[in-house]
Amino acid sequence: MENWDDMRVFLAVARAEGLSAAAPVLKMDPSTLGRRIARLERNLGAALFVKSPQGYALTDLGERMKERAAEAEVHLARIADEGQGERAGLTGQIRIGAPDGAANYLLPQVCAAIQERNPDLEVQILALPRVVNLSRREADMAITVSPPAAGRLTVQKITDYQLHLAMRSDATPLQSLADLKGRRIVGYIPDMIFDKELDYLSAIDVAGVQMASNSVAVQLQMIRQAGVGIVHDFALPFAPEVQMVLPDAVALTRSFYLVRHTSDRRLDRLTRFAHALRAGIQDEVARLERTARLTARPPV
């Protein structure tokens, strides 16, 4: 491979398994990427990909090249990390993948606090209604609601968090779960629940949801319009007209985990950021949950 820029292009296409998906990562158009890959293959005298309408699949040589290129990427990152030395502040770009509950209600203020201490740091929050693919380097690290069972990944538990049934404070009160009959239930689109830990409504004996979304932020907006649903306690302070109800009847506990590439654990910059991120999320969840409890509707 002629230079690192060629390697960077090759890795992005290999991880994305196509030109269109790799283009935003590299900030290049797909046609330019196609020409770069074709030139690289000509220079090598061998094919790295099998091209088809479904995407770019690696050849045997491409698989070996990807492994070596990924190793080189890690070594270069370590060199850059060492070059940063013992600076007081973090610099460069770090991308975090997260489910939209954490992305909407926790990460903006947590990351803002980290950036206030590190003004040269650029943080990107990738909010997705699915598990972030770290193997394709969609992000430098990810927050998940279940620890991954496979892959070369390191996992640290961040914190537990609570969820309760919630509704508008001016709605007709609920005295028991039986009163849910006839109410508009808000929840996930059933066939888009990407993690069993998100199947909140299994805790409630309801036939189905009348208002659904794959986004918890949208679900909260639906509840603000007159629905009833399971809400993260840490999201309730962002919707003051919505209150926790029947906390003794419905109380769920879930956890957030921080997932990183095993090969990144020696990168001091990412490790320092991960430490600050975990501490910030722990503090913010505790703060917001305290606020939510203070505004909970008392039993009728």
Automatic annotation (TrEMBL):
It holds the Pfam family LysR_substrate. One of its GO terms (molecular function) is DNA-binding transcription factor activity. The keyword Transcription regulation applies. Keywords: DNA-binding, Transcription, Transcription regulation. CDD domains: PBP2_LTTR_substrate (cd05466). Residues 1-59 form the HTH lysR-type domain. SUPFAM superfamilies: Periplasmic binding protein-like II (SSF53850), Winged helix' DNA-binding domain (SSF46785). One of its GO terms (biological process) is DNA-templated transcription. Belongs to the LysR transcriptional regulatory family. This is DNA-binding transcriptional regulator, LysR family.
